[in-house]
Write a structure and sequence with these properties.
By secondary structure, the protein is an alpha/beta fold. It has 18 helices and 13 strands. The strands form 2 sheets. It has a 7-stranded parallel sheet with strand order 3-2-1-4-5-6-7. A 6-stranded parallel sheet has the order 10-9-8-11-12-13, sandwiched between helices. Strand 2, helix 2 and strand 3 form a beta-alpha-beta unit. Helix 1 crosses helix 18 and helix 10 crosses helix 17. The longest helix is centred in the N-terminal third of the chain and has 16 residues. The protein is globular and about 65 Å long. 40% of the residues are buried.
Length: 397
C-alpha cells in the first residue's frame, strides 16, 4: 500500500483562451492523469482576477467529478501575485496551508514555466516545452522578454526536482544551460487518436467544406502567427508562386494573430485596416480560431500542412496532421527533425526551396499519399502512456 500524496497541479497556463500548444498539452495530461489516479489527492491551483474562461470551467467541472480532486482560484491580480513570488514574500504551499486547502504539499506540477516560490521540501515537476526565449530572444517582443526575465527561468530550472523535456532536442538544450542530465527526463508529447485520425465519413468532410467554403485543394498552416513560426519565409515562398498556382491551391492560416503578423501585413500592404481581405487577394485566408472538432477535418482535407518553423521544442501540429494522414512540410531543424525524420523538410532560410515544393504539390509531381513519411509510428505518441509515466515519476520522488 502506497500512502497517498497531496499533489498540486498549476492551471495558470489555461487562463489564456483560445488555448495554444501549451494549453492543449496541459489539458491532455491533466485529463489523463486524473482519469488514471484515484488514490492521491489533487488540488487544481489557479489565479486570475477576472472570471475564468468558460472552456476552462467546463474542464474543471469534469475533473471535479473525481472525489480526490479540488479546485482553488486565489483571485488575486496576477501582477501582485507575481511580485510576491518573485521577491519571495510568499510561498504558495504555505499560502494553501493557511487557507486550510492542503496541510502538506508533496509535489507541485507546473505544466509550463511561471512565477513560483515553494518551500524547499516540496518537490517540483516542471515541463519545459522549448528554450526559444533563451536561444532566440529576437522572436519575442519587449513585454515577453521582460516576463521571461521576471520568472528567472534559470533559477526555476535549478529549483525543479525534475525537468520534463518534451523531446531529446529540448533535453540537449537544457544541458547546454548547465543543468544536470540526471534531473532531466524526456517525455515526448502525445496525440489524441479519438480526435486526430483519418476520417472516412464523407458527410462530415462535406459539411466542413460547406461551413468554411473550402476549395477542392488547399494548404494549411496551424500555429500562432508569430515570428518563430517563420511566416516571413512562408509568405516569400507563397508570393514566388504564380497567381494561377495560388488560386489552384489556396493557403489557410489557422492561428491567433500577433503584433508580428500585423507588422508583416503593414510591410506588405502599408497602413491599411482590412488586411484579411487584402491577403485574400493573394489566396491567403486567415482563420484566427477553429473549434477543436473542426481542426482534424482541416487536416484530412488539406493537401499538406506547411510548418517551416525556425525552432521547435516538439511540434504538435505536424504530429496531429500526420495522425490524420496529412503530409507535412517541416523546417529542417531542432525537434522537428527528431520527431518527423521521414517527413518532407526545407531549409528554414531558403524560401525558393519551399516554393519549389509547393509548386510540385500543386502540379501533382508530389502525390499526397506518397508524401507521408513511411517510418512514422503515430502510436508511440500516447497521452495515456504519458500520464502513466508521469504518475510513476511523481510517486518515485
Amino acid at each position: 500500500f502506497i500512502e497517498f500524496m497531496n499533489i498540486v497541479i498549476d492551471l495558470r497556463c489555461l487562463n489564456d483562451y483560445p488555448f495554444t500548444g501549451v494549453g492543449n498539452y496541459a489539458i491532455s495530461v491533466i485529463g489523463n492523469l486524473l482519469k488514471l489516479d484515484k488514490h492521491n489527492n489533487y488540488l487544481l491551483f489557479n489565479n486570475t482576477y477576472k472570471v475564468e474562461n468558460e472552456k476552462l470551467m467546463n474542464l474543471v467541472s469534469a475533473w471535479l467529478e473525481n472525489n480526490n480532486v479540488r479546485y482553488f482560484n486565489a483571485h488575486w491580480p496576477n501582477k501582485f501575485l507575481n511580485f510576491l513570488l518573485k521577491f519571495k514574500f510568499l510561498k504558495l504551499d504555505i499560502f494553501l496551508k493557511k487557507r486550510a486547502l492542503f496541510n502538506n504539499v508533496a509535489c507541485w506540477y507546473l505544466p509550463n514555466i511561471n512565477y513560483l516560490n515553494l518551500s524547499n521540501d516540496v518537490k517540483l515537476l516542471l515541463t519545459v516545452h522549448d528554450l526559444s526565449f533563451h536561444f532566440f530572444p529576437q522572436f519575442f517582443n519587449f513585454k515577453q522578454r521582460l516576463w521571461h526575465w521576471g520568472i528567472n527561468y534559470l533559477s526555476l530550472f535549478q529549483r525543479a526536482d525534475c525537468l520534463l523535456a518534451v523531446s531529446r532536442s529540448t533535453s540537449f538544450d537544457l544541458e547546454r544551460l548547465g543543468l544536470a542530465s540526471e534531473k532531466i527526463k524526456v517525455f515526448p508529447l502525445g496525440v489524441d487518436k479519438t480526435r486526430f485520425f483519418k476520417i472516412d465519413n464523407t458527410e462530415r468532410l462535406r459539411l466542413l467544406k460547406e461551413k468554411y467554403d473550402l476549395p477542392e485543394r488547399f494548404f494549411v498552416f496551424v500555429a500562432t502567427l508569430e515570428s518563430r513560426k517563420n511566416l516571413q519565409l512562408l509568405l516569400a515562398a507563397w508570393l514566388d508562386l504564380s497567381a494561377r498556382d495560388r488560386q489552384a491551391c489556396p493557403l489557410y492560416l489557422i492561428g491567433r494573430k500577433t503584433d508580428y503578423w500585423q507588422k508583416l501585413s503593414r510591410e506588405q500592404w502599408g497602413k491599411k485596416q482590412e488586411y484579411d481581405s487584402l491577403w485574400k487577394t493573394l489566396d491567403i485566408k486567415i482563420l484566427s480560431y477553429v473549434p477543436d472538432e473542426d481542426l482534424p477535418v482541416f487536416y484530412n482535407l488539406a493537401e499538406a500542412l506547411i510548418y517551416p518553423s525556425s525552432y521547435e521544442g516538439f511540434g504538435l501540429p505536424p504530429l496531429e496532421a500526420l495522425s490524420c494522414d496529412c503530409p507535412v512540410i517541416i523546417g529542417r531543424n531542432s525537434a522537428l527533425l527528431e520527431n518527423f525524420a521521414g517527413a518532407i523538410s526545407v531549409d528554414p532560410d531558403n524560401s525558393r526551396e519551399l516554393s519549389n515544393l509547393l509548386f510540385a504539390f500543386i502540379h501533382g509531381k508530389i502525390e499526397r499519399a506518397d508524401a507521408l513519411p513511411r517510418n512514422f509510428i503515430c502510436e508511440k505518441y500516447s497521452w495515456s502512456v504519458y500520464a502513466e509515466n508521469l504518475l510513476n515519476l511523481i510517486q518515485s520522488l
